[in-house]
Amino acid sequence: xxxxxxxxxxxxxxxxxxxxxxxxxxxxxxxxxxxxxxxxxxxxxxxxxxxxxxxxxxxxxxxxxxxxxxxxxxxxxxxxxxxxxxxxxxxxxxxxxxxxxxxxxxxxxxxxxxxxxxxxxxxxxxx
Length: 127
Description:
The chain is an alpha+beta fold. Helix content is about 15%, strand content about 35%. The chain has 1 helix and 6 strands; from the N terminus they run αββββββ. The chain has one helix at about 5-25, and strands at about 30-35, 45-50, 60-65, 75-80, 85-95, 105-110. The strands form 2 sheets. The protein has a 4-stranded antiparallel β-sheet with strand order 3-2-5-6, with no helix packed on it. A two-stranded antiparallel ribbon has the order 1-4. The chain starts with a helix and ends in an 18-residue tail after the last strand. Mean pLDDT is about 75; it is low at about 5-25.
C-alpha cells in the first residue's frame, strides 16, 4: 500500500462527497411561475417563497426580492421545484427591518408526469 495513513483515510470521505455531488446533479428541477397578491405593497421590502413536501413543512426558503407587480397588482416569481414530486408553496412578505409577515395560504404544485414510461405487455385474449 502506498501513501500515508492520513491520505488513505481521507479517500472514503472524498468518495462520499463525490457520490453526493453526483446524486445532486442527477436530481431534476422544474421551473414554475408562482403568482400572488399583497394588499399593501408600498410597506414591504420583499417576499420569500417557502417550499416543502407538505403543507406547513417548508424546508426551503427563497428570497425573491420585490418583483414589480403586473397591471392587476399581481406579483410573480419563477421558482424551481423538484421534478416528479409534489411541492407545497407559501409566500411571506418582509419589511425593511426584516420583520416577516405570516405565511400566505398553502398551494400545492402537483408533480409533472415526467418522462413517458414503456408500455406494458399486450395480452392476447383470442387466438
